[in-house]
Specification:
seven-stranded mixed sheet, DJ-1/PfpI domain-containing protein, about 210 residues, Class_I_gatase-like, INH-QAR, DJ-1/PfpI, alpha/beta
Length: about 210
């Protein structure tokens, strides 16, 4: 099964690399980074580059699509090539998914119209403007529609483990979790708006600028 992860300038690194680390460990899955053109694409802060191994028009029937987020999504909301590709491949995917603000691109392609979905907390208003209905959940599934969205950044790992369960089986998903030693025990409990105090929320907003 082929998993396509589209890259674009100013993507958020963990949005792509988190799911990649889970999915590439499964022998049944072949992960490919795709983009408008082959070659290096730099992340949102410009510090990290990943390589697109194929153009969008070279990957026409992936089994799974994982769309990462990042500030670069904002300039792609009217990008006909990418949005047409998302609509076209979704006709054949087993699952079309997003991490963080990657859901904005699914929404812009019309794939989330009227559906509940999630995204990074800083993009809720824009997601709803694009036709989705935001819910504050880490992973939101619409399995009959073959759509899965995940919230900000790190939630892509959770979603990828769920995808392994759906595509292969539960034991394999648990094995993948063990392989990456994903056993979160953070030193703080401020990983969602509901848990973070006002001062932490203000500091986070300042760091996003």
């Amino acid at each position: 099964m082929q998993v396509a992860i589209p890259l674009f300038p100013r993507f958020t690194a963990l949005d792509a690399v988190g799911p990649y680390e889970v999915l590439q460990r499964i022998p049944e899955l072949d992960v490919v980074f795709v983009g408008h053109r082959r070659g290096e694409v730099r992340s949102d802060n410009g510090m990290l580059g990943l390589l697109c191994d194929a153009r969008l028009d070279e990957v026409t029937r992936p089994d799974v699509v994982v769309v990462p987020g990042g500030i670069g999504t904002r300039t792609l909301l009217d990008d006909a090539e990418l949005l047409d590709w998302l609509r076209s491949v979704h006709d054949h995917t087993r699952f079309t998914t997003s991490v963080c603000t990657g859901s904005l691109l699914l929404a812009a392609a019309g794939l989330l119209d009227g559906l509940t979905a999630t995204t990074h907390w800083g993009a809720v208003e824009l997601l709803e403007h694009l036709g989705a209905r935001y819910v504050e959940q880490r992973v939101v599934e619409h399995l009959p529609r073959r759509i899965v969205t995940s919230a900000g950044v790190s939630s892509g790992i959770d979603m990828a483990l769920r995808l392994v369960e759906l595509l292969v089986d539960t034991e394999t998903a648990q094995a993948a979790q063990l392989l990456i030693e994903y056993d979160p025990q953070p030193p703080f409990d401020s990983g969602s708006l509901a848990k973070a105090g006002e001062a932490v929320r203000d500091r986070a907003a300042a760091l996003r600028r």
